[in-house]
């Protein structure tokens, strides 16, 4: 049995831990051979491979990034892409595929499975917004990094009687903001799922200034005010016409300064959240997911994604996993809201 | 409503986060008053209290330890202890109790509940060996600390062609060893649940020496060899007659040196694992448990312990929670075993 | 003897360690009393004080920020400011002052000394750009934080075949960029002292892309291109007309993308660099500086600043210390340049 | 020009950073070729080499350990060792040697130089006890690790009203104990240079217990009591007859328990202090030392050791560097003593 492995989408701590687990268990328990595909779907599309044996995965468990490289190549947008992948897999003698990635990568995996490719998916998103799994690896690391940064900002805010706005990742779901905000004692947490009222935010800020402590606002990059409340300046786009990372944090700082008369500064954590060595939680989770994925291959359970439910690794349909986004439920936000202000 | 709060047993990162959540939510949502009892059950036994209001819990979320202090005072071994506690609670006007602690503390809580004290328990053990909850707070922090230490030891082992034995906490359950060992790529993990065969351990060590990497063995303090295999020297007791922390790690190092002829050194992580600032995971978990515990008081659901199941905080009977120890199941150990050697 | 203490200017890890050392040694060795002035020069100007005894400084050694608060109040710009300060010191019975701060704070200290105020200065700047001292406390912490962030970004850059630009503090001097860039293996380091040639930067980026590694550029916020090379868009100002933090990093990313056709992203570390717990180096340095400052008061050596030279704490004239900025010398930059590309 | 490189003695964070700097600058600036010798002096003795080019040193800057391996092989104790080394160097066409190591390694380097081997030394010791250099790389990392551990232990000590004894490295010099103890606010610091009075130690412990804080004692492994004060049990030797790491810490804990009646526990940090990624300070220092060492080769300044003096890298005679041990001077200890108790 020859098994191909690829990693797609954005960087995420734990990718290498998954690859190592797939390969080590696959060789030791099942005697498989492995083929590494480079840069996500680009690899099987172009037949770009690298050797993937025990020595290739030695020492990679604690390392961030992915030895296989990644890309956002979307197979479905390429004419004849699926056929070329099937031809390349056949040509390379690859019997099955382990695809590690987020919504996009797994969406492609699912469509390949519908066209008879033997594929197992491993969920990956820093944002923790994939359905059917309690947590995705990388998320815990991102939350730890954000929490440490906010811990540091507390003392600066207090010494200077300043409001600090920390913008964290999360375009569509506020999980990183929710967890890092709760962990670091943020005074307000703003998430995409819940358009905010700028007046309420300012009220929290002002009530906080009355203590000896200073306000810290954690805001997901995708958070936004209720309709019409705060103009999001069109000047916020970069030279490519994309909305600039850091937009909402900076706008909030300006708005809070002008409404409270106190200094406010924003910090955008950016890519630091998704690189580097994974937390212990993420290494264990990634290892278990990888082990179970290759076991699924051995069990011939294709078209599945491995997932964490409670303390167990289970297998769910790729279809189910990629249907809807897992957003922050109201009760989880309300639980955090108790500590605002 | 006046609610007493106490923390019992060994130190554990997240205790202050629980206390803060109980107090902040209790005051904000329910208008409760709080009384802090000092040093576990010694507090209510001797009527030793401290003020516990919003200002007392400001800034404590990220801090290790417990502002209430702790002790191992066992109420049940003190004649008339229960009556004295009931009298003191009545005298202080305390209507209900939130008891934060491990098996012992919650065992006492359960017996007090049987004698009509209104009590809610919050599970606490670095060892993660309490039944009915997926994880206990403090465990994730301990695993991260152990993992970072093992990461550091890898390079030393390799540069010196040496075996390193890392002894971590876990007298009765091997959770910390299992998780930190998986996370840090240990070559062998030894846990109390599974008496080890010294010949197998040595075989793993020798096979590892044949690569460019060096063997790291993670051993829980309560791990032990199969009957008669390795004499645990009686010289290992301290001046008080207690078995010395570090015993098994040191013995393994000696045994491996004498059997392989290679250098072996042991490191005992000790109390470093249970102090200091909690990880983000533990802060979120501790906060959620604290919030739910005071909500249980408000719901008049006494005799319960709050617990994590999946991503939800639930309530279980104190009786159920304290009946049996949660040890590492065979399948979890086998999952890790794939990576040995 | 009653001694006043104040902290001025931006936040800097180690401020509390200085305050603690001044107070503990002052009380234990000399029997002094202390008065804390709040928020830099605003404190003595307005007579705003706080108690500063042994219990006030307990536990503050590892904490970021300053328990005294800070501000940028510039005494010299306030009519009659110096007289009001002298009156307030007399009224409060304050015999001498320990002023902890950067160029501005120490400049005021020097002018007060010229008008017969007994003052000793302690140098503080995250940027390490104060003359007459080898290092300032806070700098080592900032460099460690930046280095850890860049370590994390390496894996992301590599996995995505992307250039990453990391903007660090340093308006007038490139010390943080130089040290964190050297420590983290940056491919290019850009500092204010040395206007850069954008063509050379792009050449380094392109040569790096030919390896399996990806380019990381560390740029001090005050770095700038050689005349006319790269337009720094006027749109980079915030709503208050200030140049926005992050300007140069973002501009470089755009320029590199358009010149190389490869993705480039910028990360602005911002205030995270100046908050939180100090590194061990900074705690030791801050403690030694504080101890020596109060010893200088006892020796009646006023008008001096304490400084690190080699491994010794020495005393230099405030005048000497604040005359010129300590910038990165050419040979230090050339030493780093060897590792570019 | 072909240059050999070797690393000798105990592991130390920063070794790889030195190797990388030597090789990269040597190739880029001087066009040298390099030969890596494995495991310290064993490499040239046995002619055991590995390739050492640009690709061999890519990515090693942040990694602990040494890619060249290390050993304690002492050339001077081997009959004809020096001649064999000279023959091997000639046979391999190696013109000069960069030897990175501590007292022993540099002592051998010096004797080789006396016998016409062209050698430049780079000082390496975690213990910071080499003369003629302000700091050695690895020391700052060790102090940071010890400081973080002591930070964590503070909260445990306080929650349990316990004394904690932390044993750190330092057989002959107390630098790690002095710096980590000052940085972490230890209540007592015990170093080899200064035999301690057990009565004074106990007095500090008891005075500390009267506050709300708990005593932390930092003790270097080579510290010892004044004559006859505390029996150091002969049972402390391991199965090889060596004094066991952890001896003095454990003995102090027992003595303090029996004299104060309070609980005391010891933690031995051990090898964790010398492994893993170097701090930013150590990476910069190691890089600068490596760069300067290969420049010394190019300048034909053999028989020298590179060293840090103030902020400059200088060259001193190997003889001078290895003559005496740099111990903690009385005034540095007294500076720390102010904060005891």
UniProtKB/TrEMBL annotation, chains A, B, C, D:
Entry keyword annotation includes RNA-binding: no
EC number of the protein: 2.7.1.90
Catalytic reactions of this protein: beta-D-fructose 6-phosphate + diphosphate = beta-D-fructose 1,6-bisphosphate + phosphate + H(+)
Active site per the UniProt annotation: 127 (proton acceptor)
Cofactors named for this entry: Mg(2+)
One example GO MF annotation: ATP binding
Assigned GO CC terms: 6-phosphofructokinase complex
Entries under InterPro entries matching the protein: ATP_PFK (IPR022953), ATP_PFK_prok-type (IPR012003), Phosphofructokinase_CS (IPR015912), Phosphofructokinase_dom (IPR000023), Phosphofructokinase_III (IPR012829), PKF_sf (IPR035966)
Residues that bind diphosphate: 10
Pathway the protein takes part in: Carbohydrate degradation; glycolysis; D-glyceraldehyde 3-phosphate and glycerone phosphate from D-glucose: step 3/4
Gene3D superfamilies: 3.40.50.450, Phosphofructokinase domain (3.40.50.460)
Pfam families: PFK
Residues engaged in binding Mg(2+): 103
Swiss-Prot/TrEMBL site (Important for catalytic activity) positions: 124
Record bears the keyword Metal-binding: yes
Subunit structure: Homodimer or homotetramer.
Family: Belongs to the phosphofructokinase type A (PFKA) family. Mixed-substrate PFK group III subfamily.
NCBIfam families referenced in this protein's UniProt entry, alphabetically: PFK_mixed, PRK03202.1
Full protein name: Pyrophosphate--fructose 6-phosphate 1-phosphotransferase
Organism per entry: Actinorugispora endophytica
């Amino acid at each position: 049995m020859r098994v191909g492995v690829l990693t797609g989408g954005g960087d995420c701590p734990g990718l290498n831990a998954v690859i190592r687990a797939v390969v080590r268990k696959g060789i030791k328990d099942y005697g498989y051979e492995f083929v590494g595909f480079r840069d996500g779907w680009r690899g099987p599309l172009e037949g770009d491979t690298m050797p993937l044996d025990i020595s290739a995965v030695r020492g990679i468990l604690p390392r961030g990034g992915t030895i296989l490289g990644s890309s956002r190549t979307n197979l479905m947008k390429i004419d004849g892409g699926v056929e070329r992948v099937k031809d390349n897999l056949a040509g390379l003698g690859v019997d099955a595929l382990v695809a590690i990635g987020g919504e996009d990568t797994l969406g492609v995996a699912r469509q390949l499975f519908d066209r008879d490719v033997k594929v197992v998916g491993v969920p990956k998103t820093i944002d923790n917004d994939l359905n059917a799994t309690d947590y995705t690896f990388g998320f815990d690391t991102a939350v730890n990094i954000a929490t440490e940064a906010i811990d540091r900002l507390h003392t600066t805010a207090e010494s200077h009687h300043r409001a600090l706005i920390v913008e964290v990742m999360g375009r569509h779901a506020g999980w990183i903001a929710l967890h890092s905000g709760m962990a670091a004692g943020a005074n307000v947490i703003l998430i995409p799922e819940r358009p905010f009222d700028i007046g309420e935010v300012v009220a929290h800020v002002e009530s906080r200034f009355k203590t000896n402590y200073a306000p810290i606002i954690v805001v997901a990059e995708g958070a936004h005010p209720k309709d019409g409340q705060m103009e999001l300046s069109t000047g916020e786009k970069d030279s490519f016409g994309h909305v600039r990372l850091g937009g909402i944090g900076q706008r909030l700082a300006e708005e809070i300064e002008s409404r409270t008369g106190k200094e406010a500064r924003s910090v955008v954590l950016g890519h630091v959240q998704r690189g580097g060595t994974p937390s212990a939680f993420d290494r264990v989770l990634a290892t278990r997911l990888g082990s179970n994925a290759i076991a699924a291959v051995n069990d011939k359970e294709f078209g599945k994604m491995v997932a964490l439910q409670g303390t167990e690794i289970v297998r769910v349909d790729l279809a189910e996993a990629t249907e809807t986004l897992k957003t922050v439920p109201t009760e989880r936000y309300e639980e955090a809201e108790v500590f605002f202000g």
